[in-house]
Design goal:
Creatine Amidinohydrolase, four-stranded antiparallel beta sheet, three-stranded antiparallel beta sheet, 4 helices, globular, binds 2-amino-4-trifluoromethylsulfanyl-butyric acid, binds cobalt (II) ion
Length: 265
């Protein structure tokens, strides 16, 4: 199994980081732009322009015939929301998930934004999603196993009274957007694929406030929770070295990876 995992050299990770940085900056830029009235299509266009201006390609476009440049998933949409003419409203949550290809390397990151003033449950969900991703990243290092990461994710979400959508997984990423290994969002400590230096993977648990069952809408893409509960997701691309783990898509400085960094105000 492990032999199918494309490991990266330090030099290759440095190259991949360029794609990851453009992806991270695109999302960072949205925080000043997302507000009531803006449409998901506007957000799509802003991201595409930013990515292309910075020498990259929004690699979701055309991926398995996906029609958007980014995914814009609002409220009960768990993933793969297609940008359209929906105008954001006060109190909405929107997750923007985007991938960038640059010089043959991919970066993948997602962020949930609060639109205007959100209610208490949405705030709890955002805090839960943020904590779950940040704790899992902090725990990921060479020498542990995939089950340790999955268990860490499931436990943090549970502590906040939220569910993890376990039909979704993280993934290796490199020359391809999706590579081995799968990064499960649940698992037993001490089991699964060993985490070794040279791995580049995403951590991307999707959390919801209710039941984690989902269904696909007729467009073949949009995935919603069956009980219409809201979702939130923070995704980063991370690289594992022998002595440290680097969050390649984080552009906001090391100290913003803290648990108390409020990404939603
Ligand atoms: N960026 C998503 C991920 O985190 C992939 C979206 S797949 C698409 O893996 F098909 F919707 F484009
Ligand atoms: Co993604
Ligand atoms: Co991903």
């Amino acid at each position: 199994m492990e032999k199918d995992i494309p490991l990266k050299t330090t030099l290759e990770v440095a190259r991949q980081k360029k794609a990851c940085t453009v992806a991270g900056r695109a999302l960072e830029r949205l925080s000043g732009i997302i507000r009531p009235g803006i449409t998901t299509m506007d957000i799509d266009g802003i991201c595409r322009e930013f990515i292309e201006t910075n020498g990259g390609r929004p690699s979701l476009y055309g991926y398995r015939n996906y029609p958007g440049n980014v995914c814009t998933s609002v409220n009960n949409v768990a993933a793969h929301g297609i940008p359209g003419n929906y105008a954001l409203r006060d109190g909405d949550l929107i997750t923007v998930d985007l991938t960038v290809e640059l010089d043959g390397w991919h970066g993948d990151t997602a962020w949930t934004f609060a639109v205007g003033k959100i209610d208490e449950d949405s705030t709890r969900l955002l805090r839960a999603a943020w904590n779950t991703t940040m704790k899992a990243i902090a725990a990921t290092k060479a020498g542990i196993r995939m089950g340790d990461i999955g268990n860490n994710i499931a436990r943090t979400a549970q502590r906040f009274g939220c569910s993890v959508l376990d039909s979704f997984v993280g993934h290796g990423i490199g020359h391809d957007m999706h590579e081995e290994p799968m990064v499960l969002n649940s698992g037993e400590p001490g089991t699964g694929v060993p985490i070794v230096p040279g791995m580049v993977v995403t951590i991307e648990p999707i959390l919801c406030l209710g039941n984690p069952e989902v269904q696909v809408l007729e467009d073949g893409w949009t995935i919603v929770t069956r009980d219409s509960s809201r979702c939130a997701q923070f995704e980063h691309t991370i690289a594992i070295f022998s002595n440290r783990t680097e969050t390649l898509t984080n552009t906001r400085g090391e100290d913003t990876l803290r648990l108390d960094f409020p990404p939603f105000v």
